[in-house]
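During the second year of the project, the team shifted from modelling isolated chains to modelling whole assemblies. The rationale, set out in the original proposal, was that interfaces cannot be judged from single-chain predictions alone. As a representative example for this report, we include one of the complexes processed in the last quarter. Its constituent sequences, exactly as entered into the pipeline, are reproduced here:
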Amino acid sequence: MENGLNWEQTLINELAQGMELAKQLRAHLNSTSSAESREILLQRILSSYEKAFMILKWSRSIGHPQLSAPITNLPESSISGDGSPQSEEFDRGFKDQQDQNDVSKKRKVLPTWTGQVRVCSENGFEGPTEDGYSWRKYGQKDILGAKYPRSYYRCTYRSLQNCWATKQVQRSDDDPTIFEIIYRGRHSCNQTPHTAPPPPPSSSSLDKQESKPKNNPNNYQQQQQSQNMFFNFRTSSRVDTDDSDNRDMASHFEFPSTSSLGWNNGENNASFAFSTLVSDSILESCCLPSFVSPATSETSYFPVPPCQVMNGFGMVHSESDLTDIISSNTSATNSPIVDLDFSIDPVVQDSHFPFDNPGFFN
DNA sequence: GCTATTTGACCCGG
DNA sequence: CCGGGTCAAATAGC
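Output from the structure prediction step:
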């Protein structure tokens, strides 16, 4: 652990620095500062995150017990490899298989991660419509204290491919342009968009009042397109771990590769700010775009900047301690989830820090 | 006619 | 008992 403290501290420092720099960059974005200065800041941010990433990789490679242990110990029950449902639904489904008579709807804490999507419709854009997956709405509920109802979606291929991923979309009371999305379970279906990166769990259909795209199951184009949109979103992640069972998880930082950056065509600069929070465990790696974090119930939050620019990610602002985040987050590879086949393009897969990608932020 | 959405009822956990 | 999540019949759209 001694060692752990050292690298953790370093990691924290790097991340903190990156956050600070990102803040500065944000300030620059609003001002008339030169592109040059922004570039410099970007470089520094990239550098900081790159270091942090290296540290994480390093720690993983040496098999830091702290990080790897929990991961490997994750109960299969909560995650099942690929297609198994992790959610309560999983429970249900599982039971059904075992005992058709047991219709229990027992609810279970599942790994979930949430995201926030900001929709700037000033430009006429309605909002993020897809996150690369096809979802089918199965319910809507008024939530106590919330102005807007919460919508419940599940993967269109739930029965066909036994995909138990679900998500909840809730419009923010304060800022109607923001939708908070909570993802549950991981996709086990084959709808991964080719171009796509791990879809960040993202947004998608909004409430009925919002524009709601129809998901056509066989429509990959649409999906791909949406995926691209993703990149336009800013993503931030946060992990909420409330599940005591999975205290640590691996984290992954995946960012869209540059290729997608081009997406933004200026015309409608619709921009969305998208942030994802990952929670609990095992996330579904399949779609986790962002990264994960660990820790206990704290959350790491990478807020996203307002909608204006397209790429880049905002600063990290942690509501809690970065430390928590860091301490647990690390191993991408060790992660239980590991079957992660991130389809995400490129970059991140190995040791390359995605941020390396020039263009990533632009 | 088929599939997705809507929406009230039902179920579960706290 | 209440709030949140899911089911499933009814309805809408293609």
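Residues 88, 103-107, 136-141, 156, 208, 212, 214-215, 217 of chain A lie near DNA strand B (CB under 10 Å from a C1'). Chain A has eight helices and six strands.
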